[in-house]
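Predict fold of DUF4402 domain-containing protein; 180 aa.
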Amino acid sequence: MASCICISAGVRCGAFLVSGRLAALGAAFCCAQNAYALPGDTQTQIVNPGLVTNATSLDFGSVIAGTVQSRLRIPPTSDSIVVSAGNAIPVGGTVSRARFDVVAAPLTFVFINLPSNIQLTRVAGTDQMLLDQFQQSGLPFQIMGPSGQLSFYVGGRLRVNPSQASGLYQGNFTVTVNFL
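Predicted 3D structure, encoded as tokens:
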């Protein structure tokens, strides 16, 4: 272990101060007498950058279409449906916000990105409905806690067209989680 202290104006070694172009030569010369070889330890841990799973789906349940375009919303804060416009009627079935579980190293920064909109398509048909205004619980930029686990919820707004054809409508949306 050398007993040199590097400073911005030069290199100080013992009682000598060498500056300018001779700094490296002077440091090597004066420090060579005080150099020691000591073993050092090193280690590293390889961690998975993260794992994201979709624990529950975004489900609007059963709805009777109205005579005007209706907007139904599931907030990211509860498993409930709200009619925000129009005269469509929710009539039961399973209503749930989507839940995503994240596992990563503690104190990892995560940035969550939601889609702007998607189309739901009627199974065995071509009729569609727009799902937009996706929202998540919490902030889009979060820090993993000490447990290395984080869950967040996603809701959105469904536009039910007037006299929408009966049937099951399905679609997929992508949530992107970046680990920083």
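Residues 16 and 30 are 8 Å apart (CA to CA).
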